[in-house]
Amino acid sequence: MKKIISFFIRFVPRKYLQLFSGVGLKVLGVFYAGNNVACPICNHHYRTFLPYGRINTRPNALCPHCQSLERHRLIWLYLQEKTNFFSTPLHVLHIAPEACFMKHFEAQHGNGYITADLESPLAKVKMDIHEMPFEDNHFDVVLCNHVLEHVTDDMKAMREIYRVLKPGGWALMQVPFFSPVPDTTFEDNTITDSKERERLFGQDDHVRKYGKDYPNRINQSGLKAEANTFAAELPIKQAHRYGIESKEVLYLGRK
Fold first, then answer.
1. 222, 193 in Cβ contact below 8 A?
2. 136's torsion region: left (phi>0), alpha (psi -120 to 50) or beta?
3. Which domain holds residue 40?
4. DSSP label at residue 173
5. Are residues 101 and 64 in the same domain?
6. Are residues 95 and 214 in the same domain?
């Protein structure tokens, strides 16, 4: 199973995975029936979650029903327990929207919930994150998870996030970190060989490897960086049941 999932992730374009993987994963879920783990997003439970990863495949990671990963389930719990996201209608910009979230967020925020991406077939608005087609000070929340490692100029993208956020608004901006995590973010656009990019950046479609200076980069955009350790606060049994990595840090930028 690990090899099959790894193959599809590495060689099938993301937009096709988004469109067609859901049905197949739900069928697989039948063979994972059980009650050891549960997804807080879709409320389905299994013997274990599916493995996930391109090279170093992680066990107990992918929910067969809604396709959530560890970080998605952590974000969901954070939004529920630490914010007003599910209690107040908000203006929300969701960049590169994840399928596991969309129907829930739209039900909560209605027309205030905008999905946007350059390529994703799931998004309502086609846009370049470097030049967003939205007015200043418009959104209460921006969700931008595992996007900035793909874009040409992440600093410009973060400045755009700052621009469209209302004063008092906040953005959730997760990026991947690959061990060993460097002190300084590394990028080199002269490297074009796909295998070398995968070796250096973790994936061949990444353009940088983020380092321990990521909060400083957020600060440089005008946002105030917050490295939130909510995951570590979860009871061990709850974290295990939801398949959440307690060491994951949530990176926020506040305006």
1. no
2. beta
3. 2-68
4. -
5. no
6. yes
In a 10 Å sphere around its CB, with 0-12 CB exposed, 13-18 middle and 19+ buried, how is residue 194 labelled? exposed
Biggest CA–CA distance in the chain, Å, is: 49
Cα 171 from Cα 255, distance rounded (Å)? 8
Domain membership flag for residue 96? yes
Q: What are phi and psi of 220, to 5 degrees?
A: -65, -20
Q: What is the DSSP string of 107-154?
A: HHHGGGEEEEESS-TT-SEE-BTTB-SS-TT-EEEEEE-S-TTTSS-H
Q: Say how many domains are in the chain.
A: 2
* Same domain membership, residue 226 and residue 110: yes
Where is 38: in which H helix or E strand?
strand 33-38
pLDDT in tens, 113-171: 999 999 888 899 999 999 999 999 999 999 999 999 999 999 999 999 999 999 999 99
